[in-house]
Design goal:
This protein is an alpha+beta fold. The protein has 13 helices and 16 strands. It has three domains: 130 residues, N Utilization Substance Protein A, Chain:P, domain 4, CATH 3.30.1480; 71 residues, Beta Barrel (OB fold (Dihydrolipoamide Acetyltransferase, E2P)); 186 residues, 2-Layer Sandwich (GMP Synthetase, Chain A, domain 3). Helix 1 crosses helix 2 and helix 9 runs antiparallel to helix 11.
Length: 430
């Protein structure tokens, strides 16, 4: 059988495998596919009869690599017929018998060597082979990364800053000890305003998405602004959460506030079934030691740990911490609208700077919260207003998506803050 020589093939496979961290079998498969495309280009260039080649015309061709001899052969699988109409796909029974296949029968398949001469392969075919090989190696690498990190989606990884591209930070992450590093992208919207991203700096990042497809650039999208990072940091720092004695019920995070005058802030609701355990105290730690570790990792982000309660009124009052709430009136449980009454000196604290405190409390609890001055509150008028609204609209016509209305009602209170274009996290409320 003839063979096209490829000097240095064995060394080439080993170097590509080492540099791209790919198995040798994957590199060999990429080379075979690239050589087959090169042969297809050669055949199309040699097509003097202008025969039409369909997309699947060369499906019965294959490449055999000889690593030790450092070369390759092209073989074709042909069907035995009485009369040949397509010499690339068929072979005459008489010809097979003359080649020593006396027992061959019509309809059977044989594999034949169709390797061109060394000098006939051509410069254009070699260029095609090189281009296809580069593409196939990239595809193999992407597939490997996807398989390696698919199960790690939604977990936290250690990352190191490599470089900057536009407003994104390109970081190096690893799937585990001893595994090679791959590139991940930290977009502008997923960065923390207090982080100092410099080359070589290390951060804990949340693996938000493993991309598929043939897009350029890193496949891994990581985040420093996702609420999942806060959950991981608390679970890592609080043994009671790791042991499932304390559970995190809900998280609302505003890592990139709409105004630069407001800092990042998170509210986290915790609970326990053990009467002897204080879930809030367990998360805060002795003299704030545990929560301080989380705050330091998030570069000074403000974190409120509150106690979850099955009673909505108690839960809402806790969520508005550190403000002191006098009364919570569940005006319409069906549409989850509530009035929270506070003293005049607690109004600004309950609302928060540019509405941040009440905005996060609304996201955390899933209730639409209106902060009211208790001294000026008219019980009868407010009850009549809601009674009229319930009589006017049937329950099925009431919009159940109350969270989208939180910002509008805050505007009515003349807080004048800009609504973020994209929320970082919308937790499911138990």
């Amino acid at each position: 059988m003839s063979m096209v020589s490829l000097p240095g093939l064995k060394e080439l496979i080993e170097s590509i495998s080492r540099e791209r961290n790919l198995p040798k079998t994957a590199v060999q498969a990429a080379i075979r596919e690239a050589l087959l495309k090169g042969y297809e280009r050669y055949r199309r260039a040699q097509n003097l009869d202008r025969k039409h080649f369909d997309d699947d015309y060369f499906d019965n061709f294959d490449v055999q690599l000889d690593i030790e001899e450092e070369g390759f052969r092209i073989v074709s699988t042909k069907t035995i017929v009485e009369k040949v109409t397509n010499s690339d796909h068929e072979i005459a029974l008489q010809q097979v018998q003359e080649m020593g296949g006396e027992e061959a029968q019509l309809g059977q398949e044989v594999v034949l060597d169709v390797t061109p001469d060394q000098g006939e392969f051509g410069r254009m075919a070699a260029m095609q082979t090189k281009q296809v090989l580069a593409q196939k190696l990239r595809d193999q690498q992407r597939q490997l990364i996807q398989e390696e990190f698919q199960d790690l989606e939604g977990t936290v990884l250690q990352a190191r800053v490599l470089r900057f591209e536009r407003q994104s930070v390109i970081m190096a992450v690893s799937s585990g000890f001893g595994q090679p590093e791959v590139e991940a992208e930290l977009p502008k919207r997923e960065q923390l305003p207090n982080d100092n991203y410099r080359i070589g700096a290390t951060f804990k990042v949340y693996l938000k998405k493993v991309s598929q497809g043939q897009q350029r650039g890193p496949q891994l999208l990581v985040s420093r602004a996702d609420a999942g990072l806060v959950v991981y940091l608390f679970a890592n720092e609080v043994p009671e959460i790791e042991d499932e004695v304390v559970r995190i019920v809900a998280v609302a995070r505003e890592a990139n506030p709409p105004s630069r005058h407001v800092g990042p802030r998170t509210k986290i609701a915790v609970d326990t079934l053990d009467r002897d355990v204080d879930p809030v105290g367990a998360c805060i730690g002795a003299r704030g030691s545990r929560i301080q570790v989380v705050v330091n990792e998030l570069r000074g982000e403000k974190i409120d740990v509150i106690r979850w309660s099955p009673d909505p009124a108690t839960y809402i009052a806790n969520a508005l911490s550190p403000a002191r709430v006098d009364e919570v009136r569940l005006m319409d449980p069906e549409t989850r609208q509530t009035h929270v009454l506070v003293a005049e000196d607690q109004l600004s604290l309950a609302i928060g700077k540019e509405g941040q405190n009440v905005r996060l409390a609304a996201r955390l609890t899933g209730w639409k919260i209106d902060i009211k001055d208790k001294a000026k509150y008219d019980y009868a008028a407010e009850d009549a207003k809601f009674a009229e609204a319930r009589a006017k609209y049937r329950p099925e016509e009431v919009d159940e998506e109350v969270e989208d209305d939180v910002e509008e009602d805050l505007k009515k209170e003349e807080l004048k803050y800009k609504n973020r274009e994209e929320e970082q996290y919308a937790p499911e409320q138990e």
